[in-house]
Specification:
alpha+beta; about 475 residues; 12 strands; 20 helices; four-stranded antiparallel β-sheet; 5 domains
């Protein structure tokens, strides 16, 4: 038997035994002249015993599949001559992603279905329109093509994931819901469609069960904080061979390294002649990637925890352990804050010590009650104890990630509490942009006429602090 020569997109393969090749290469469907339904003599081979993964489902809204199937696709030079289009695609000549999408959407299924696993177009623009007829046609078979494209562009391509329900999609949607304003519409439509079914998807279970409420979104955010491969103690050892460096984090979650003598370095040194030629470059690359990855979440975590302090959010002891003392990244922020435990016996302030035990303002060990509600202590709740805590943190040289112990505290007067006016700020002139900027601190436009006496002490303090800052530069 003469050797079989196959021309592939990436080169030429010479196989002596034709029987060793898959049929799709021995008898390529694009070299035949199939009808619209594909050649009967080469019907798809069905392998017994193969079933879809039990945690993946596909859910269409009424009429959606038909609507997606009728989406107008991009015209291609080979439109109607799909055999030529497939040949060009396999030869690497059909490179424009919308044209490729049109081929997958319109060419006979027998021609293009075998090519789906290798189709991963490099697009960053809105691509949902091009993907919809392909999803309508191939359903779950195109899931691995759609997922990475949607991840690159949630706003413009995320809609193509609406019918898909599995753990990876659930986690991605939960992340978008918390992190991306641009993806709010598609994530809410996804959760609205899949509802209770979404909570049965492995690690996303708790996040998706609670997603409908603000408290639920906070819980999702807690669970989505990545560990970035850090050790359980929150550190990471980078091995250069003859020398090692340890990664740590400052109060803003910016990573830095210390050498074996404990000397702090802002960056890793370049590998030297005596360093291991494989370990050292890999370690340096690992640190660069870590610094980049952490930067993407650091500001969100700091802002989220400051908001939790102001809003009075509380965690159970188990959640406190999972999300803070036991989390390799969040631990670096948590240990720089004063926390408060509340139960029927009262309220106790504490901190997380270097060994991850808990300690009170006297630096005595503190045991968290089983039924406690744990939160980040606002200085209003600490009262006169702020001074003692400030001195303790100064002694330990603990720098805080956001203003807590040094946060200005304000209180309403009796007259202000009884009414709906703050005379101390009346008559001040400030730029309209500064007023509108209050939305960054949680303010909303409304006119409900509530009395300031309805505000709790922490909220009242924050309101007065915002207005004091706003009017400080007023003429």
């Amino acid at each position: 038997m003469p050797p079989f020569v196959g021309v592939l997109p990436y080169g030429v393969a010479v196989i002596k035994d034709e029987g060793a090749l898959p049929r799709v290469l021995v008898d390529p469907p694009w070299l035949r002249a199939p009808d619209e339904s594909g050649p009967a003599e080469h019907a798809p081979v069905v392998l017994a015993g193969l079933t879809p993964p039990p945690d993946r489902r596909f859910v269409w809204a009424p009429g959606e599949r038909e609507a997606w199937a009728n989406v107008r696709v991009h015209l291609t030079p080979n439109e109607g001559r799909w055999k030529d289009a497939v040949k060009d695609y396999v030869a690497g000549k059909l490179t424009y992603p919308p044209s490729q999408a049109a081929m997958f959407a319109c060419a006979p299924e027998g021609l293009v279905h075998p090519l789906l696993p290798g189709w991963h177009p490099d697009v960053t623009w809105d691509f949902a329109h091009s993907l919809q007829p392909i999803v309508a046609r191939f359903a779950m078979d195109v899931r691995d093509n759609v997922l990475p494209l949607a991840k690159r562009n949630p706003y413009g391509t995320g809609e193509a994931l609406l019918p898909f329900l599995d753990a990876d999609v659930a986690r991605m949607m939960a992340d978008w819901l918390y992190r991306l304003k641009s993806a709010q519409d598609v994530t809410r439509r996804w959760f609205g469609r899949h509802g209770a079914a979404a909570v049965a998807r492995r690690n996303a279970e708790t996040a998706l069960r609670l997603i409908a409420s603000a408290a639920g979104r906070d819980t999702v955010a807690d669970r989505l904080v990545p560990g970035f491969g850090l050790e359980t103690d929150g550190g990471l050892v980078l091995d250069y061979g003859p020398r090692r460096f340890t990664v740590a984090f400052d109060e803003q979650l910016k990573p830095y390294v210390t050498d074996e003598d404990g000397k702090r370095r802002k960056d890793l040194p370049k590998p030297g002649a005596k360093d291991d030629p494989e370990l050292a470059p890999a370690a340096r690359q690992r640190f660069a990637a870590l610094r980049k990855d952490v930067r993407t979440v650091a500001s969100d975590q700091l802002r989220r925890l400051e908001s939790a302090m102001v809003s009075g959010r509380r965690w159970t002891p188990a959640e406190f352990g999972d999300f803070f003392t036991g989390h390799p990244l969040m631990w670096h922020i948590a240990r720089r804050l004063v926390w408060v435990s509340e139960d029927d016996a009262g309220r106790t302030a504490f901190r997380i010590a270097e060994d991850r035990t808990l300690a009170d303002a006297e630096d005595d060990t503190f045991a968290l009650p089983e039924n406690a509600r744990v939160g980040i202590a606002h200085p209003v709740l600490l009262g006169d104890a702020v001074k003692a805590w400030s001195e303790l943190f100064a002694d330990y040289e603990i720098t805080q990630p956001f203003p807590q112990l040094g946060r200005p505290v304000h209180a309403l007067t009796d007259r202000e509490r009884a009414g709906g006016r703050l005379a101390r700020f009346e008559g001040a002139t400030v730029p309209i942009g500064a007023v509108l900027g209050l939305t960054r601190y949680g303010w909303e436009r409304c006119g409900d006429g509530r009395r300031f006496g309805e505000l709790d002490a922490v909220t009242a303090s924050e309101v007065l602090a915002d207005l004091t800052r706003l009017t400080a530069s007023a003429p």
